[in-house]
Specification:
Elements: H1 2-5, E1 18-23, H2 31-44, E2 49-54, H3 60-64, H4 73-77, H5 83-86, E3 88-89, E4 95-97, H6 111-122, E5 130-135, H7 141-149, E6 152-157, H8 161-178, E7 182-190, H9 193-211, E8 214-222, H10 225-232, H11 237-240, H12 245-259, H13 270-280
Helix pairs in contact: 2-12, 6-13, 8-9
The chain binds adenosine-5'-diphosphate and magnesium ion.
Adenosine-5'-diphosphate binds near residues 24, 29, 223, 227 and 228.
Length: about 280
């Protein structure tokens, strides 16, 4: 069991880089906005933060911030560039690794390429305190690959039933295929604390009962027009409207995430798990 719960990115062998994958199952729940605001809020706390835009289909993060990067993750995946070379400056002092738009499947990469990508991420250790990975929706091989590799996974849900069923499907496949037993959860676009807590409780009940997985509630972000207004200004809301209810919630989420100890895998199993990741993503 210990072996199965170990993760390869962030937390192993004296590493100080914390890797957190943000995932959801369903699209449009606010993953990219949560990632961007959490990143900036962590930077405001003095952390060195990098965001890897792993939505290989649509390059959300650079569109959100009006960036037009020359290089992307694609060039890293092809072995043409190092991660550090493709990074661009984002808002609030964060750095962004742009998504490989137009690149469909990680599964088309050979296992050497996949291992190189993991090594590349490891090479960020020392330069950054936290790496946030913004994933695509769904449970494609790409999404699972990043979510399985990260030391921690933050699942974004909304109170809608479809979001809960999609989140359940996501948790299920990560638990059964990759042995992940713990997930952090935040509820976005909630109408209030009771609404959010009810949604969390519904999901936690079924994941505990049927999957024996533990969900850890990280609070909620209210539905707030300030978020979409900020998007139109190509800024995260924590910068565009820091006192808005959603921004205060993002800041609180950053406080919770920063206070929490990252999952700490045991050193010796790292290579084994890497091997497994390569196999599983095949
Ligand atoms: N807390 C919120 N309140 C209001 N609108 C939100 C909130 N979070 C996200 N949105 C809006 O929802 C839409 C989808 O958000 P996005 O972050 O792109 O979702 P995802 O990455 O999960 O597909 C965006 O238009 C965004 O402005
Ligand atoms: Mg997105």
């Amino acid at each position: 069991m210990e072996v199965e719960t170990a993760a390869v990115l962030g937390g192993g062998g004296g590493s100080t880089l914390r890797v957190l994958a943000i995932a959801s199952g369903k699209g449009g729940v606010g993953k990219t906005n949560v990632t961007a605001n959490l990143a900036v809020a962590l930077a405001q706390r003095g952390q060195r933060v990098c965001v890897l835009d792993a939505d290989l289909g649509l390059a959300n993060m650079d569109v959100l911030f009006g960036l037009s990067p020359e290089w992307s993750l694609l060039h890293v995946l092809r072995g043409e560039k190092r991660l550090a070379e493709v990074m661009v400056d984002g808002p609030g002092g964060i750095r962004i690794i742009p998504a490989a738009s137009g690149f469909d499947e990680l599964t088309s990469l050979g296992s050497d390429d996949r291992l190189r990508l993991l090594d590349e991420v490891d090479s960020l250790d020392g330069t950054f305190d936290t790496l946030l990975i913004d994933s695509a929706a769904g449970i494609s091989a790409n999404v699972l690959y990043f979510a399985a590799a990260a030391a921690d996974a933050l699942v974004v849900i909304t109170p809608e039933p479809t979001s809960l069923t999609d989140a359940y499907a996501f948790v299920k496949v990560l638990a059964t295929k990759y042995g992940r037993r713990e997930f952090l959860v935040t509820v976005n676009m909630a109408s209030g604390a009771a609404d959010a807590e009810a949604a969390f409780a519904r999901l936690a009940k079924v994941t505990e009962r049927f999957l024996r997985v533990r969900l850890e509630y990280q609070g909620y972000v209210p539905y707030d027009d300030a978020v979409s207004r900020a998007v139109r200004q190509q800024l995260p809301s924590v910068l565009a409207a820091p006192q808005s209810p959603a921004s205060l919630a993002f800041t609180d989420l950053a406080r919770k995430i920063a206070a929490r100890r990252p999952a700490a895998p045991t050193g010796g199993v790292q290579f084994f798990f890497r091997q497994r990741l390569v196999e599983a993503a095949r």
